[in-house]
Amino acid sequence: MFSIVIPTYNRPDALKRTIGSILSLDIKEVIEIIVVNDSPGSEIPEFYDERVIILKNTKNLGRAKSRNAGAAAANFPILFFIDDDIEVNENIFDAYINEYKKGYDAVFSNVTNVRSDGQYSFLNEFLNTRGANKKKFRSKFRSNYFTTAFCSIKKDFFDRIGKFDEEFCSYGWEDPELGLRIESNQGKISFLKTEGLKHYHDKNVDEWIEQIEKSGNNLKYLINKHPQFKKKIHYSLLNSFIGAVIFNPLFVWSEKLKAKRSRGFLGYLNYSYLFKAAIYRSLR
User: Which of 13, 64, 241, 253 has the greatest number of C-beta atoms within 10 Å?
Assistant: First the structure.
């Protein structure tokens, strides 16, 4: 038995696709799907399935608080957290339950980024090589790779370690923070590689960069809470004179111009630079 928590904010079509994909699967376990509507002014679709439970926030609370609200309402001992822009194309749930039988406390998977209009995106191709999508990424991983777009955790363990940190009130960095906290509380994390989870990601490169640059407050909070995370983002370089030279506005502007036409190996170098530059700028 497990509970699926899906926070949503004014994306009825995406939510319908996500829940529809889950309900279409032949899942052996007894489940409930708890949808937390974090957009009080908007309605969400009716699913006509008693397994789908709708919670509505009286005001916009953000993803962390919405997830925690969903978890608090859950009736079953295993929690799944799924974003409302994920399409589940294989029954990976049963595989997760098998991991818990092996003694794991949390499980997560990679997602494949695609555009909702089906068009090619080099940004998505780039993102599909990073983090949990790295080709050699299997059972051995750093806790900061933990991602919550599609993940699961034992409810009692989740409650014991303090749930999602509600200080993260905007986009960014709450995923590695939870991974670090699971690890510091001696939690065992399993990773299941899959090609069956689609993440509908329609941002262009400018929007992606802007999103990272605006996540600076969350990153600073994460670093203050977990100082060891500095090494994982090469903070000493980012905060040095060399970093100021490498990520100066002229270089960043030049690389942004290239990004619209970037492809192949040089494109990967270009996007990797822009990613690091966006982190650098977020900390300023």
Answer: 64
Mean pLDDT, the chain, rounded, equals 91
User: pLDDT band at 140, cuts 50/70/90?
Assistant: low
User: Residue 264: left (phi > 0), alpha (psi -120 to 50), or beta?
Assistant: left
Residue pLDDT, tens place only, 123-134: 999 999 988 887
pTM of the model: 0.91
Q: What whole-number distance in Å separates Cα of residue 132 and Cα of residue 108?
A: 9
Angstrom distance (rounded) from CA 74 to CA 182:
20
Integer distance in angstroms from the first to the last C-alpha of the chain? 46
Q: Where in the chain is the domain with CATH 3.90.550.10?
A: 2-200
Is 78:5 a contact under the CB 8 Å cutoff?
no
Domain 2-200 fold is Spore Coat Polysaccharide Biosynthesis Protein SpsA; Chain A (3.90.550)
